[in-house]
């Protein structure tokens, strides 16, 4: 159930006003004397040392859906799509005790794949949950978040235009640690492509550009631990998307302890997330010039869940080197997904896997994956990369070649492709959708992004 527009706007204004009131030095207790608070300021805004920035990004893509896929319902061929993204960033600094950060973004998107996705959704009536087999085409929503800071201006058959606040938080630095309140992003874990420890809006394995995670409304406390370690505690209140009510069974609460010990850095994690209990451990170390990382989690599911619980783990190693007069960088990563299956057509009958896929906690259907990556600096302003995600049980996989060109100090161009391979009945080669004559086949695609930073 969508929250009423008036209530949404009121909550947005109250949240911003409360954070602002807490942030302005004249209001925060103890930051000025009474006389200083009553004295006129020469330039209050300049005293906050405002910092502005952002980017304008244009994205274009071509996709070629398979004739056996669900796209056959509306016609296949070459799909052309485009998007524009504006992000404005502002920071206000309050001496040495804190800052207030805001990110505004406006996104315009649409094209053939968007239109086809809407038509397929109308034809299938949502019979496949979570967009598992049919493309899920929708704008970003705050239905689960504490604050509804997204405003959809237009959401039509051919495209959509919406605006939102992706960051809105107050950061307070004290001698004993740091507290951040509001919409922000936090990343836990050391995975390069897959990251089972990252419980809050993790990136998809195929995401090439990872400059900004989607923000969540949370309280984050970071305390120093020992000589070079730290303890992070986070609380993420969430709503039931159907009733808009705050629910404990939708929310998250967790802590992560990082402890350097000799040449190895150890991590311990404990969290409650969507009624799941998550315990994890990880380590980071070095072998010669290479760095290695390992993270493992055990997730205890609610009593009514068929699986009971599952194990996930990721391990990787990366290294930089020179050859043929060029700088190289590469890593290899192996990932185990304890919720994975072998009969992909039966995924709709697996509620535990479906829930994890819908919440963005899991992105794959299989169990074991190997991901090598290599990048070469052909010129200080031009780099080429190749990433391969391979399902070792099928086998099948994804190959992602891409390049980044810094055209000027402020303009970057990224071009690349996502290519799927595998035989019939495999995860990425395609498999039949039970009860239909359609197949789940991912579409090969090529893309180009142009970003202007300011």
Secondary structure elements and pairings:
Elements (H helix, E strand, L loop, with lengths): L4 H19 L10 H5 L5 H4 L3 E14 L14 E16 L3 E14 H13 L25 E6 L3 E16 L2 E8 L31 E10 L3 E11 L6 E16 L2 E10 L2 E12 L2 E11 L8 E15 L2 E12 L13 H8 L9 E12 L2 E10 L4 E11 L4 E12 L8 E2 L6 E2 L3 E10 L1
Antiparallel strand pairs: 1-2, 1-21, 2-3, 3-5, 4-5, 5-6, 6-7, 7-8, 8-9, 9-10, 10-11, 11-12, 12-13, 13-14, 14-15, 15-16, 16-17, 17-18, 18-21, 19-20
Task: Write up this protein.
The structure is a single chain. 11% of the residues lie in helices and 51% in strands. It is built from 5 helices and 21 strands. The chain has an 18-stranded antiparallel beta barrel. Strands 19-20 form a two-stranded antiparallel sheet. A hairpin with a 6-residue loop joins strand 8 and strand 9. The protein is globular and about 70 Å long. The two termini are 38 Å apart.
Main traits of this protein?
mainly beta, two-stranded antiparallel sheet, 5 helices, 454 residues, single chain, globular
